[in-house]
Structures are given as C-alpha cells and as structure tokens.
C-alpha cells in the first residue's frame, strides 16, 4: 500500500476538516440495526459519546465513539467531541455490558481530548478516564479501535486501549494538541505546524512505534472526498482483524492486549 506524501501539519488539517465523516456516518454505513444506549446511571447522558449495540457482518457487537456535530450548534452541544466524565462512565458501562454478553467491542475515536471545564473536573474527569482505560484494557472480548480523525490525549485513550488499532491515513493520535505542545515548548501556539512535525502523531509514525496496527488509505484530499470508499475500506479492515481476534480465548485476549500496551513505543 502506497500512502500519499504529506507533512504532519497537512495531515492534522485533514484530520480536522469540517466535512470529514464522523462516527454516526460510520455506524450508518456498516452497523445494521444500531440501537443507541444512553446514560451513565450516575449523573446524566453525554451526547459527545455515542454508544449502543448492532450487527456487524451479522455478528452482534457493541459500538462506542466520540461524537462531533455537523454544524456549530451541534458542535457546541457536543463540545466539539470532548466528553464529560459521564460520557466515559457511559462508555465503561457499555464495555462491561459487552463483556457480559460476549459481544466484540468496536470504538471510533475522534476527539481533541476530554473536556477540560471546571464542572468536568468537579465530577471526576480524571477518575472516569482512568477507570475507562483500566476496564477496557482487561476486557475478555475482542476489541478494535478505529481512529477516524483526531485522537487527543487521555480523552482518546479512554476508549482506545484495544487489542487492535486501526488508523485512517490522515488521522492523528497524540498526547496533546500541536497547539498545546507548542505553547508549552516554545510559549507560542502559532508554532503548531513545527510541533506537529516532531510529535510523531501521524499513522505512519505511530505504526513504526508499535501503536498502530493497520493503516487505511484515504483519497488524496481526505476521507471527505469519497466517504463510501473509506467506509468500505474501514469495514474490510475491521472484519479482517475481528475474524482473527474471535478465534482467541478471552483470557489470552486480555493478556495479549496488556502486553501490547506495555510494548508501545519500544518497537
């Protein structure tokens, strides 16, 4: 597979393109009879995390994903895909439900990071993220995460501690935004393009580091240029990985996933 030659900054721009397909587009394209489930059973429902059950290739699965809006009003409502603690607690609830009923888990990641507001911190943002990571890393079911846009910090990792990581060619995954990195390192967020080049946040760089397992090629302009092509390629990639994972035992899935997480960055 030959990937297009682009700078990290160019890939960041494409990952953030306003017309890029969002999680609901992927669910509509490849999950049949999707039934959304709401609420964390503790505080509220967070619409920036979508979760539910459906059928993937006639197999019952649980799907969880970061949700962005299609216009300004929706994005404000969903905080541009930045979940509150109740979003991650909803995700954790659905993970445990998936394990209880032996359903594979597919997550779609597209977030700048967890919401950093005061109310989120008051309601236990850090704890909610940590518990979600811990729960997901120990699941005895097949787990696959697909990075469809941005993957920012613990906000992404909370639903990304999977057995297999699939990244779209122009998706990104980093400890914080390039703007935040530049602000810390150079006290100047305008140097974000320079930061992106040194952060190792692209799919190819992350594959070299052992973070990403599969890269899905996109059209030259990005996924928004031909969504149906991308949906088809992502579906094929998920199905190929899922067939392999379903042959393994629950105990071995958990052990292998844990070992993989420990090896990240050492490849």
Nearest-integer average pLDDT: 94
Largest sheet: 7 strands, mixed
Counting helices, strands and paired strands, the structural category is alpha/beta
Q: What is the molecular shape?
A: globular
Rg of Cα set: 17 Å
Strand content: 15-25%
Number of strands: 7
Order of helices and strands: HHEEEHHEHHEHEHHHEHH
What does the model show?
The protein is α/β, with parallel strands linked by helices and 267 residues long. It is 43% helix and 17% strand. It contains twelve helices and seven strands. The chain has helices at 8-15, 23-30, 72-77, 85-100, 118-122, 125-137, 153-157, 178-186, 192-198, 203-208, 227-245, 250-263; strands at 32-36, 49-56, 59-66, 105-111, 143-151, 164-168, 214-216. The chain has a seven-stranded mixed sheet.
Q: Summarize this, please?
A:
With 267 residues, the protein is an alpha/beta fold. 43% of the residues lie in helices and 17% in strands.
């Amino acid at each position: 597979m030959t990937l297009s030659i682009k700078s990290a900054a160019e890939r960041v721009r494409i990952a953030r393109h306003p017309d890029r397909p969002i999680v609901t587009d992927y669910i509509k394209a490849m999950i049949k009879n999707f039934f959304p489930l709401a609420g964390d059973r503790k505080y509220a429902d967070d619409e920036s995390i979508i979760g539910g059950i459906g059928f993937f290739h006639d197999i019952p699965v649980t799907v969880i994903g970061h949700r962005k809006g299609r216009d300004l009003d929706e994005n404000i409502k969903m905080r541009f895909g930045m979940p509150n603690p109740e979003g991650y607690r909803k995700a954790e609830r659905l993970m445990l439900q998936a394990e209880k009923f032996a359903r594979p888990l597919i997550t779609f990641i597209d977030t700048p990071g967890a919401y950093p507001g005061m109310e989120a911190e008051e309601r236990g943002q850090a704890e909610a993220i940590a518990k979600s990571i811990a729960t997901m890393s120990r699941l005895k079911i097949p787990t696959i995460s697909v990075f469809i846009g941005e993957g920012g910090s613990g906000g992404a990792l909370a639903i990304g501690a999977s057995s297999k990581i699939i990244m779209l060619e122009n998706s990104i995954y980093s400890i914080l935004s390039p703007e935040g990195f530049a602000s810390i390192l150079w006290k100047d967020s305008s140097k974000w393009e320079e930061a992106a080049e040194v952060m190792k946040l692209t799919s190819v760089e992350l594959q070299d580091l052992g973070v990403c397992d599969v890269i899905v090629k996109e059209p030259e302009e990005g996924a928004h240029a031909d969504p149906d092509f991308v949906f088809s390629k992502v579906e094929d990639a998920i199905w190929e990985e899922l067939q392999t994972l379903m042959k393994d035992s629950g105990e071995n899935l958990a052990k292998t996933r844990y070992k993989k997480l420990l090896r990240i960055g050492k490849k």
